Amino acid sequence: MNPVEIFTDVSTWISDKVFYAVPVFDTKMPLIVLWLVLAGAFFTVWLGFMQVRGPKLSIDLVRGKYSSPDDEGEVSHFQALATAVSGTVGLGNIAGVAVAISLGGPGATLWMIVAGLLGMATKMAECMMGVKYRREHPDGSVSGGPMYYLRDGLAERGMRPLGQVLAAFFALCMIGGAVGGGNMFQSNQATAQIIDVTGGESSFLADVPWVVGLVFAALAGAVILGGIKSIARVTEKVVPFMAVLYLAACLVVLVWNVTSVPAAVGEIIGGAFRPEGIAGGVVGALIVGFQRAAFSNEAGLGSASVAHSAVKTREPATEGFVAMLEPFIDTVVICTMTALTIIITGTWDDGDASKLGGVGLTSRSFETVLPWFPLVLALAVVLFAFSTMISWSYYGMKATGFLFGDNPVAENAFKVLFLCFTVIGSAAALEPVIEFSDSAIFLMSVPNLVGLYLMAGPVRAVIHGYFRRVRSGEVAQVGSRA
């Protein structure tokens, strides 16, 4: 066997193990999805349903009402939120939702929303811990994330060897996920979309997709070589723009079909509890909805904790409250709007749905309103892919730095390697690479959640303590964001 065949076989074996599914009635539940959803349920109860009690404080923090210019860190709460959202809002919000509905019916949407709400609590726990155990360097830069709180947090609790092993394993998985799913897959799918809207097989780019990859690498390089401050400056502008653009397009479709909205909502609610069949049944809809939400918002994977660790704050709990907005934005808002667009136009239930694929099905839904609307979707796909790439470049860079003792040379070497794989991804056949990188990304949740369970006591103490001090007035507002 040649090296490519060996890599393909290894990737397939790893993927089969990571996404191993157990029978649930007449369908199957991937264990990794169950692992993530149960963590969301646990931290929802453990933290006292903070996603219900704390949104106002979250918004006040994002607006800068509790921020001081003297706080240590590199980016504002809003910039940290934008960077983390840019890493999660991507093709899963467009293609993944379409796949969920085509497999589980409209009812999958409701369970997707439920999983997103549960994931808010997990995001709160992991991002708070990222700030609590971050490392501040002499030059003012910051390193943080699960690899640091796994190593140092568990060491404080007398489990140093376990913490070191979990931290190193997490960092290795994050590097694999950053190069593959966070980079090559994004470059590949964005390139495919650009070629499609410029003529498909007859496009002038059809035979030279690597040219698109070079452009992506040049644009990404201009951003990521500047570090987290540069990434944050870009994401705080790109993320709101791309979200508004995409949501506006969805709203146009909904307004165009406004009389069908009540029926679509009824299909979502009714389909979520319909007992008959796998595809439309309650178990099938629940599993598919949970799976797409887990793949979309990354709650429990620990990735967003790396971005939030760079925030300017003296209170670790603040970033927990800010971070819990991410699953709401990503899953409850953007994924739901995609779902409504597909359901209300009826494209999910026509004979061609299975042939169109994820992006194709969403594009068909847009096209039912205006023939040129798929161009808007193409622009959204490119922006989503680009923002995901630059965020995951930072995640991979910090994981590399951790493994090499926070060495800036190693971090810069990773940046160069990352950009090389951007070009390769635009033209490569990615099936084995994506199998491996998806597995790496979801394997991150194993050490991350094990560590969070073991440190659940301090997590609750820090978050509840800060919330009480805010409500009592001990923590006062010090400013506001324009």
Explain how this protein is built.
The chain has 22 helices and four strands. The chain is globular and about 55 Å long. It has one domain (18-470): Amino acid/polyamine transporter I (Up-down Bundle), CATH 1.20.1740.10. The relative contact order is 0.22. Helix 2 crosses helix 13 (282-297), helix 5 packs across helix 11 and helix 6 packs across helix 17 (353-367). The protein is 74% helix and 2% strand. It has a two-stranded antiparallel ribbon with strand order 1-2. Strands 3-4 form a two-stranded antiparallel sheet. It is mainly α and 482 residues long. The chain starts with a helix and ends in a 10-residue tail after the last helix. The longest helix is centred in the middle third of the chain and has 38 residues, at 160-197.
